[in-house]
Amino acid sequence: MTREEARHLLHQLTTSESLLRHARTVELVMEAYAGKLNQDTEKWAITGLLHDADYQLYPEHHPNIIVEKLRELGEEEIAHAISAHYTHWGVPYNTMLDKALLACDELTGFIVACAQVRPQRLEGLEPKSVTKKLGNKNFAASVDREQVRIGCELLGVDLNEHIAFIIQVLQQHQHELKLQPQAGAQV
């Protein structure tokens, strides 16, 4: 599967601007991690792009619909990683791809939420600010903090280093993601 084919599949299933942005942010982070870990950047990017593709139309069946479509297309490794991106589903973590998606999904969404409440958005966002907000259960309450912890543990990364890496990746794309500082914000 090419990235263009993956984008087409995503857009067949998802129209929500926030879900499309989440897909793009996880795509970018997964691609960057693949480069850092000497893995297949296209496969990792596609996995990030499609991990929630069926959520808007089929929330009660997520991720089974996208996993089934990927298996029909012969993309078993991507399908398995997507089927495992939440630990409560009971799917084993066999590969770095599986572990990386779990480690990047919730935390990337959380970091975007942190940036959105700051006038300077991603500029100057520090890992300590993100970890402080992680401790506030009322902030981005839908983010499962236990998934963040387990993901870091499985991927073998320090939480603060992981946060810093994700912030750096997102900063490189802040204009596309509409996460640049607001006009007049102090950076």
UniProtKB/TrEMBL annotation:
Highest taxon of source: Bacteria
Organism: Pontibacter burrus
Name the UniProt record assigns to this protein: HD domain-containing protein
One Pfam family hit: HD
Database matches in InterPro entries: HD_domain
Record domain HD: where: 20-90
Xref: Gene3D superfamilies: Hypothetical protein af1432
